[in-house]
Design brief:
CATH topology of the largest domain: Collagenase (Catalytic Domain)
Shape: globular
InterPro entries: M10A_MMP (IPR033739), MetalloPept_cat_dom_sf (IPR024079), Pept_M10_metallopeptidase (IPR001818), Pept_M10A (IPR021190), Peptidase_Metallo (IPR006026), Peptidoglycan-bd-like (IPR002477), PGBD-like_sf (IPR036365)
Cofactor: Ca(2+); Zn(2+)
CATH class of the largest domain: Alpha Beta
Number of domains: 3
Membrane topology: Lipid-anchor; GPI-anchor
Helix content: 25-40%
Radius of gyration: 25 Å
Distance between the termini: 20 Å
GO molecular function, one term: zinc ion binding
Largest sheet: 5 strands, mixed
Number of helices: 9
Number of strands: 9
Structural class: alpha/beta
CATH architecture of the largest domain: 3-Layer(aba) Sandwich
CATH superfamily of the largest domain: Collagenase (Catalytic Domain)
GO cellular component, one term: side of membrane
Order of helices and strands: HHHHHEEEHEEEEEEHHH
Length: about 350
């Protein structure tokens, strides 16, 4: 027999740690859209949807008709003819199918129930463009607007954009806003043979950008803080609207608000719509429909690039290898972080046993 904290005991525990390393999990176990966020960072109307948590087929909860209107707004549900133009508060078969389609589209576990992950996704701030429906043509991941509309301007193509002279925000300088949009447009220009040029004449620009509040005349009213952040229309419409009520930020480190929204992330997403892309079901893609407050998503992923290049072709100078290298580097970083955590834990345990031996 050897002492509990003797030399051989220490050696045994050390070998166990080395031969049976701790499991290493990827950095993103839970998709961004189901990360639970605090109540003050949700749209007030959508926050009321928490009371429908755990509802399933057969449930009858007062006010569920409002949740059904949400599903109708984003293309998952239509009002049955036998309901006289109004939704009921019953969790019926049609609504169950809508919930399952929503879960499938947003990469959630397909349960057909309003589980916590689904409710959290529903309440997350998002783009106002519909996810599915007769106006959307879906592929395995990325999607297009019906008919696959695109800009037709010859090749090489140059699209002009301008900012509204009367519908802007005053707490971010125009020069900062211009810089943000220049970077956002350049990301798309790097992968397709389309150039973007800012001009002063708002009325003659191909893409018209402005900040609007509430009902602003396009049939898609904004709803205040969070909720719908922005929306843009398919080619060759060119309208690009952001909700003026949001707390927009160009540097999240300088803006402390819990409801701050990264302008560049939203700009990059909406430009995808302007070019003809609808929403993607790939959580990491720029064209995924939701964006949490105080988060940033500006780098085009493989799904974004494949989708837009199917419409416009590839920029001759673009190489997929560079995009893959970038994504691989990110994945390697996650693996290195896991390994570092494993060895940090192992060293801590070894140190603990050494101290026990000394004392």
């Amino acid at each position: 027999m050897f002492p509990l904290f003797g030399y051989y005991s220490f050696l045994f525990f050390f070998l166990v740690l080395c031969c049976f390393p701790l499991p290493c999990f990827p950095a993103r176990i839970i998709p961004e859209q189901i990360t639970v966020i605090t109540t003050d960072t949700r749209n007030a109307t959508w926050h009321n949807f928490t009371r429908f948590k755990d509802a399933e087929k057969g449930s009858h909860i007062s006010g569920m008709s409002e949740l059904k209107k949400y599903f109708q707004r984003f293309g998952y549900l239509s009002i049955p003819d036998n309901q006289n133009g109004n939704f009921t508060d019953v969790f019926d078969t049609q609504f169950e199918s809508a919930v399952m389609l929503y879960q499938q589209k947003l990469g959630l576990p397909v349960t057909g129930k309003l589980d916590s992950g689904t409710i959290s996704a529903i309440m997350s701030p998002r783009c106002g463009v519909s996810d599915t429906g007769p106006r959307i043509h879906s592929t395995k991941h990325f999607a297009y607007f019906y008919g696959r509309p695109r800009w037709e301007r010859g090749s090489p193509m140059t699209l002009t954009y301008a900012f509204s002279p009367s519908n802007m925000i005053d707490y971010i300088s125009l020069s900062e806003i211009r810089t943000v949009f220049e970077r956002a447009f350049s990301r798309w220009a790097l992968v397709i043979p389309v150039n973007f040029a800012e001009i002063e004449d708002y009325e003659s620009a191909n893409i018209k950008i402005g900040f609007f509040r509430g009902d602003h005349g396009d049939g898609e009213p904004f709803d205040g803080v969070l909720g719908v952040l922005a929306h843009a229309f398919s080619p060759e419409n060119g309208r690009f609207h952001l909700d003026e009520a949001e707390t927009w930020a160009v540097d999240l480190e300088k803006v402390k608000s819990k409801v701050a929204v990264d302008l560049e992330s939203v700009a990059t997403h909406e430009i995808g719509h302007v070019l003809g892309l609808a929403h993607s079901s790939v959580t990491e893609a720029v064209m995924y429909p939701s964006l949490r407050p105080r988060s940033r998503k500006v780098d085009l992923k493989l799904d974004d690039v494949e989708g837009v290049q199917a419409l416009y072709g590839s920029n001759p100078n673009f190489k997929f290898s560079s995009l893959l290298e970038s994504e691989n580097s990110s994945n390697k970083g996650n693996v290195l972080n896991c390994r570092s955590s494993k060895w940090t834990f192992s060293l801590a345990v070894v140190s603990f046993f050494l101290l026990l031996m000394i004392t």
